[in-house]
Write a structure and sequence with these properties.
Blueprint: H1 9-25, H2 31-48, H3 60-70, H4 75-82, H5 86-93, H6 101-111, H7 116-119
Helix pairs in contact: 1-2, 4-5
């Protein structure tokens, strides 16, 4: 069997790289393999969320901060990977700007997670109240 259930971070990272390569090649030709990898990666994410410290009640910013720390990503590096400005990443992390649907998709693809992890509601800081 080519793929098996993921039980460690090394296999997780390996499958994520394979997934990304297949997505870049021909997603239609490799559709079944891509679907299987998505299921295996999602399964691992769901099983390890609590064990690695991400709690379901964490807001999307806390989740993003945690993932950046785990992956040793700077704001600038994440911005380069997502093809967005560093300022946008900073504003999001400082609760100055909401995560857009487009950004939630980019983040979920980057971290191989469900989009819902980045699309839940959270409060912005220093938001001026309408008079």
């Amino acid at each position: 069997m080519k793929y098996k259930r993921i039980y460690n971070i090394e296999k997780y990272n390996e499958y994520c790289k394979v997934y990304e390569k297949l997505m870049m090649k021909d997603s239609e030709k490799y559709a079944d393999e891509i679907d299987l990898l998505e299921l295996l990666i999602e399964d691992y994410d769901n099983r390890t969320i609590e064990s690695i410290g991400i709690q379901e009640d964490m807001n999307p910013i806390e989740t993003l901060q945690y993932l950046m720390e785990e992956h040793k990503l700077t704001k600038a590096e994440l911005a380069r990977q997502l093809i967005v400005s560093r300022q946008l990443i900073t504003e999001i992390l400082n609760y100055k700007r909401n995560i857009s649907k487009k950004m939630a998709i980019k983040l979920s693809n980057r971290f191989n997670m469900q989009q819902t992890a980045f699309s839940r509601e959270y409060e912005l800081k220093n938001k001026k109240k309408a008079a």
